[in-house]
Amino acid sequence: MNKVLMTIKGSALLSNTWKQELQILEDGVYGETLVVGRRVKMHLPYESVAQVNISRGVLTADIEIVNKGGAGNLVIKALKKKDAEKAAELIEQKRIEFQSTQKQGGMNNSVADEIEKLASLLDRKIITEEEFNAKKKEMLGL
Fold first, then answer.
1. pTM above 0.90?
2. Is residue 75 within 8 Å of 98, Cβ to Cβ?
């Protein structure tokens, strides 16, 4: 089940639309936005979030979650300023965590792939066992 980390609601009175809601989930953000005058439900996973912008007004703030694809940004209007700032911080934190996890996974996979290639060279007697072990220790940082 996708855990809800934070839910914030905008003011229907101040947004001139409907009472908008943003949910920050474990795997991304969810909300409704207006597209050509229609409500559209949108889920953006953290891998698709390019950045988070806050537009601060006199009474409220709007939050825009920018889609890396360039289209379909999620905009929630008429939020309390503190809520919008907390939401932006949480989204940014989760986005960075996701990127960090992806990079670590990619590094581990590439090191494992390189060791497999070295093992293949060892099996074909292209490198010696000493060369294999030395390079493996170097790649693993031992």
1. no
2. no
